[in-house]
């Protein structure tokens, strides 16, 4: 995995010493790393790997340097496509090629993940995103062209399906801006971004007027900065 320092003035990236990093000195994440996410404390990183069919957990060293694997990779029976950690840091969520959205409890001290439950989602789930309040989870489903929404139990981290929202064809990723009011989905085909207003009470998504908007050829990822006033 590669790591970079961000210049606070220009935003420019500089690769940190020793990057890209191996795990435990000689083991890498495998050839199919699909996603990386950082826990809210900034102490741990998680990589979903499709070829290894595993989630790799890393401890982030001082200054963002050395990344050391935490225990053995969390093996699965299918190809992991995305991993997300909710804002409290107590739970993590992962999608895989078997149409599953799995829930894991996180150990805040070691970063280790323990399986809680799984739920079936749409065909080819590509990405999972948690809203800033930690109350809702969303999955972009590539095959049917929609986003599945779930309510998160604050005690157990368990999921309850609350419905789906249609997107343009082949959604690849989803991002929710910091206020939690709006969600954005990158659609690989026909090359646009769908925009939704998020219901703060139910988590339901309602596409806004003027959505989707053109985004060039085959967009795969979308991200937001700050919150909308």
Q: What does the model show?
A:
Strands 3, 4, 5, 6 and 7 form a 5-stranded antiparallel beta sheet that branches. Strands 16, 17, 18, 19 and 20 form a 5-stranded antiparallel beta sheet that branches. The chain has a 4-stranded antiparallel beta sheet with strand order 8-9-10-11, with no helix packed on it. With 229 residues, the protein is mostly beta strands. Helix content is 0%, strand content 47%. It is globular and about 45 Å long.
Fill in the keyword field for this structure.
single chain, 229 residues, 20 strands, 0% helix, 47% strand, globular
* DSSP strand count: 20
Class based on secondary structure composition and strand pairing: mainly beta
| Helix percentage range | under 10%
Shape: globular
Distance between the termini: 35 Å
Sheet having the most strands: 5 strands, antiparallel
* Strand and helix order: EEEEEEEEEEEEEEEEEEEE
Radius of gyration: 17 Å
Q: What do the pLDDT scores average to?
A: 87
Number of helices: 0
Low-confidence stretches: 23-27
Strand content: over 45%
Give a quick rundown of the structure.
The chain is mainly β and 229 residues long. Helix content is 0%, strand content 47%.
SSE arrangement:
Layout: E1 4-6, E2 13-15, E3 33-38, E4 44-49, E5 54-60, E6 67-69, E7 74-75, E8 80-85, E9 91-96, E10 100-106, E11 113-120, E12 125-130, E13 136-141, E14 146-152, E15 159-166, E16 171-176, E17 182-187, E18 192-198, E19 205-207, E20 213-214
Antiparallel strand pairs: 1-2, 3-4, 4-5, 5-6, 5-7, 8-9, 9-10, 10-11, 12-13, 13-14, 14-15, 16-17, 17-18, 18-19, 18-20
């Amino acid at each position: 995995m590669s790591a970079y320092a961000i210049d606070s003035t220009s935003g420019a990236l500089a690769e940190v010493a020793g990057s890209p990093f191996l795990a435990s000195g000689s083991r890498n994440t495998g050839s199919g790393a699909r996603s990386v996410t950082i826990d809210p404390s900034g102490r741990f990183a998680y990589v979903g790997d499709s070829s290894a069919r595993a989630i790799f957990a890393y401890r982030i060293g001082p200054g963002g340097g050395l990344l050391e694997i935490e225990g053995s990779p969390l093996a699965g029976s299918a190809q992991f496509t995305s991993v997300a950690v909710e804002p409290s840091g107590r739970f993590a969520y992962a999608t895989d090629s078997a149409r599953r959205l799995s829930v894991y409890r996180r150990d805040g001290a070691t970063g280790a993940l323990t399986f809680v439950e799984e739920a079936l989602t749409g065909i080819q789930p590509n990405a999972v995103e948690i809203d800033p309040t930690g109350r809702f989870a969303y999955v972009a489903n590539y095959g049917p062209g929609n986003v599945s929404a779930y309510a998160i139990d604050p005690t157990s981290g368990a999921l309850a399906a609350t419905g789906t929202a249609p997107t343009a064809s082949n959604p690849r990723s989803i991002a929710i801006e910091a206020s939690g009011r709006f969600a954005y989905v990158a659609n690989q085909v026909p090359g646009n971004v769908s925009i939704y207003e998020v219901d703060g009470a139910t988590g339901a998504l309602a596409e806004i007027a003027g959505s989707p908007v053109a985004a060039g050829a085959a967009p795969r990822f979308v991200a937001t900065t700050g919150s909308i006033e």
